Amino acid sequence: EPEVTQTPSHQVTQMGQEVILRCVPISNHLYFYWYRQILGQKVEFLVSFYNNEISEKSEIFDDQFSVERPDGSNFTLKIRSTKLEDSAMYFCASQGALNIQYFGAGTRLSVL
Amino acid sequence: QKEVEQDPGPLSVPEGAIVSLNCTYSNSAFQYFMWYRQYSRKGPELLMYTYSSGNKEDGRFTAQVDKSSKYISLFIRDSQPSDSATYLCAMRDTGNQFYFGTGTSLTVIP
To answer: How many Cβ atoms are within 10 Å of B107's Cβ, its own excluded?
Structure first.
């Protein structure tokens, strides 16, 4: 069964450093998403991406965040200057023709 | 005002019980409704997806949507210990932004 793959599973970084979280969506899907889930809190939408550009973004997705699809398979989330409050699970999701999202297992980001 | 409200629980039931999980929402533009199951430190896994009022059944799971009341439910029949997880409702309008509930933590006791 096709799946969404995220790497790394756990990323530890120092405050102020840049991190790149990587995702390989399901190959024939067209829409891609990033979500954040702070420990014990709800899953929060960050951004959706379609046709090589941002489709929608939330208030959380400020100038420190960026997304990119550098090649035909990878979808990345970059956080330029990490803050302590960026510590969370980050989930990538991809969506095909049936409007159903499939989530990856997530990357746990720990900012020290 | 929260878009989606969900009782976080925790909910604890004996094996074999019928479980009822609920969400309410405020945005009448929501058209697509989903239930996800999330195990600890894992990504959400889609259980049910519907876009109309009424019931949709899949095995032991039934999703119910009442758009007039802005209320959705997930019923789990003959609950099993393996059903122990956090259940998230999610919904979206015609755009591409999904709104999640806080999740309800369920424990099924053998």
So the answer is: 14
